[in-house]
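User: Can you model how S-adenosylmethionine sits in this protein?
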Amino acid sequence: MNIEDYILSHSDPEPEYLAKVNRATHVKLINPRMCSGHLQGRVLSMFCHMISPKSVLELGTFTGYSALCMAEALTDNAVLHTIECDDELEDFIRQNFAGSEHGHKIKLHIGEALNVIESLSETFDLVFIDADKREYLAYYEAVLPKLRAGGFILADNTLWDGKVLKTVDANDKQTIEIMHFNDFIATDDRVEKVMLPLRDGLTLIRKK
Ligand SMILES: C[S@@+](CC[C@H](N)C(=O)[O-])C[C@H]1O[C@@H](n2cnc3c(N)ncnc32)[C@H](O)[C@@H]1O
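Assistant: Here's the modeled complex, given as structure tokens:
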């Protein structure tokens, strides 16, 4: 047994409906690793139980796995807005939401994250940033004014497969922008922050 199997065997199992989404994502899509998966999914669900947000925003829906994990922990009067730019995923996402008793808490927006954020008038308690790595800092600045004081931002993939520690190719815009985002957050005194070595790196940010 490796350490990840040990961790999973001492955490809640993946609910059956999410295992189905995970399997379907692996069968139908070319980049299934983008799906949060069992461990990160349970962490997102636990954070939502801890924070009890009434309004959540997710950037980057993909097949809906992480949105469903967070929705699971929301009360019926809470809403999760999730934004995905790939309209070819829409039917698959809606099918996955329809297959969950928590799907009705999720509002899917198909469009570019920065445009959709601008159109939303809500104040959010929690934002999960998981879309285009080259736009992380722009997402952060766009969502921070819409986050209540004391609210949280979770930024995924902030270790970017360990590439943040290596010499970066000038063409590797994703790594460059993740590093830029990480350096910016580290010194931004509008927020408290801690980076967790969970999966591909998850930075927890709290607005002061
Ligand atoms: C890492 S995946 C999201 C995974 C999902 N949050 C999960 O954990 O299961 C990133 C998604 O962001 C979408 N995306 C990329 N750029 C975007 C943008 N500018 N606006 C909205 N979505 C975007 C991609 O199409 C992709 O589906």
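A couple of observations from the model: Residues 3-207 form a domain with the Rossmann fold fold (CATH 3.40.50.150). Residues 34-36, 60, 62, 65-66, 83-86, 112-113, 130-132, 135 surround S-adenosylmethionine (CB under 6 Å).
User: Helpful, thanks.
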